[in-house]
Prior knowledge:
Pyruvate Kinase, Chain: A, domain 1; 12% strand; alpha/beta; single chain; elongated
Amino acid sequence: MSDIREIRSRMKSVADTEKITKAMYMISSSKMRRARAELERTRPHFDALNNEIKRIFRSKPGIKSPYMYPADGSHDLPGAYAYIVVTSDKGLAGFYNHAVIKEFESQMTDHESRYFMVGDYGCKYCDARSIEYDEKFRYSADNPTMRRTREMAEYILSEYDEGRISKIFLIYTDMENSIVQKAKTVRLLPFHRMDFTDEKDRTNVTFDFFPSAESVLENIVRSYVAEYLYSALVDSYCCEQSARMNAMDEADRNANELMTALNLEYNHARQSRITREITEISAGARALKKKKKK
């Protein structure tokens, strides 16, 4: 790239791109902070629901519920398995979507399955590979809210209550810390009884439930599923923003390296041009001088 005008044009393009990546970095950082703060505000309610379910099991160890595995311990339930897959609405998020899709592919088996996609990226992936998913359950992954999450939970729970699905799995990205993110699959329903029982936590205290322990458990479980789904959506959203921040930071570093190389190339081209002009002037002066001598 020896033409100075072309190099200047390229440098301007890189500089404009660098402004965009820095702006996207700041936006993602702000979104992640707000989402984490919102999740922390809802966590006490989620912990309270978890404790109430434990209290019911401590008081009624033999309780029966459609949201629990059968008492005989069988895990191979008849019916379709549901997978809720959480991706982003758009790209430019580094490895984030790739990791979720890879986890999603690892869960595909010969067992009858139904897929429920959250985020446009997952929908486009399924469309490109002719993978059927529930068109009615198509939600945005951007800025998750509790109201939207309750709609999701009610829809998926109605499918479960009607017997159209027998298990519900959630595929999302967990932010283990500020650096490590991991796409994982968790089972939402049915519950194992051991998920809410702890031999160290057993007491002889009994409680009365109205109208019944089963009815109370059903209401709590529905709220628990919604809260868990919401925390997973927010966690995934934070991971998306963190991955986008890392991607924009990497792009910014690459832009700086490219700008440095272009500056060097520009200086070389400019120096070559100046040298050529000086050489031409000197040659013209020498030719003129020789002409005068003659």
